[in-house]
């Protein structure tokens, strides 16, 4: 029985307990639905393990936004070489953070569940392929 790697599961936003069920419904840049599932469709794990749990994701999101803003500012400097226009940096940083908001939203919740949640552990017996489970 091959287990799903943690890196692959994190990159594809899969459940941290079974590494098979999708954590989010909808596409990442969907205008209709970009929300976290209440329960894992595969193993039934309740993602919000306590009331208000995802408020902590705001702190993770804040750290990701600070890092993103710094990276965008450095890239803007290296591409334009302009250090005199604060409006250039303000516009590019706000625009970049706005465009990356759905990615940061998902990444903050995935990081919170995988790395910052001591209550959640990987269960290898739940990590089975549907095609081989019925045979």
Short description:
With 135 residues, the protein is mainly α. It is 48% helix and 3% strand. 16% of the residues are buried.
Largest sheet: 2 strands, antiparallel
N-to-C SSE string, H for helix and E for strand = HEEHHH
The main sheet orders its strands as 1-2
Mean pLDDT, to the nearest integer, reads 88
Based on CA atoms alone, the radius of gyration comes out at 18 Å
Overall 3D shape: elongated
What structural class should be given to the helix and strand makeup?
mainly alpha
Q: Report the span from N to C terminus.
A: 14 Å
Fraction in beta strands? under 5%
- Fraction of residues in helices? 40-55%
Low-pLDDT stretches: none
Topology, number of strands: 2
Task: Write up this protein.
It is built from four helices and two strands; from the N terminus they run H-E-E-H-H-H. By secondary structure, it is mostly helical. Helix 2 runs antiparallel to helix 3.
């Amino acid at each position: 029985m091959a287990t799903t790697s943690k890196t692959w599961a994190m990159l594809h936003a899969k459940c941290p307990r079974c590494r098979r069920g999708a954590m989010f419904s909808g596409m990442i840049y969907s205008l209709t639905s970009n929300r976290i599932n209440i329960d894992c469709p595969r193993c039934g794990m309740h993602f919000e393990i306590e009331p208000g749990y995802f408020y902590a994701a705001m702190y993770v999101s804040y750290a990701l936004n600070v890092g993103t803003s710094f990276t965008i500012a450095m890239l803007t400097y290296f591409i334009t070489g302009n250090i005199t226009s604060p409006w250039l940096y303000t516009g590019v940083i706000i625009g970049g953070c706005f465009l990356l908001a759905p990615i940061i939203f998902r990444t903050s919740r995935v990081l919170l569940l995988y790395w910052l949640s001591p209550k959640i552990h990987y269960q290898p017996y739940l990590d089975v392929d549907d095609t081989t489970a019925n045979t």
